[in-house]
TrEMBL record:
The lineage of its organism: Bacteria, Bacillati, Actinomycetota, Actinomycetes, Kitasatosporales. This is DUF4352 domain-containing protein.
Amino acid sequence: MRVPNVIGDWQECDGGHAGLRVRVHGVERAEPPRGRDDAAEGLVYFRFRVTVENRAGTPFGIHVEDGQFDVRTGPDGESAFLDWRNSQFIEGFDLYPLRRATAVIYAAASDTSLARVDIQIQLRTDEEWADRYLWAGGIGVHGGVIGGDSALDGTGEGLACQVSSFLQREAEQGPA
């Protein structure tokens, strides 16, 4: 069984896509730039970024567009509303070596379900499909990423911060 990535982690692509890596990052509450979709009434908008990096020696034609995402929220894994009108995709872009391209995706879900967000992506290069990869995390009460690296999400609420807080509490309590 594959283990999901934590939001902010890079995932190396396998097989014929060696040299490409992808990550989901920048998950945060955000209103869409061109206004809310009527179908998202009563839901809370959030956005995330998908960055593809080419570390190979040859260019790849990449696609990160609608139909390649599945976003699930909450403990029951309900589907989030994906706002295609406000999202910015990567469609047929020639990604040269040592370059990156980023898509910005807007989605909406109920406020109570944002603590658990799972984002699955299947990257397409030229006319070939890569494996599907999953990122897990969420958005906390104050809008910070849960399960992401604090160096990547900028909130100070990541795993490193949690470990540091735990060690500090243990040091203050002294030996048992």
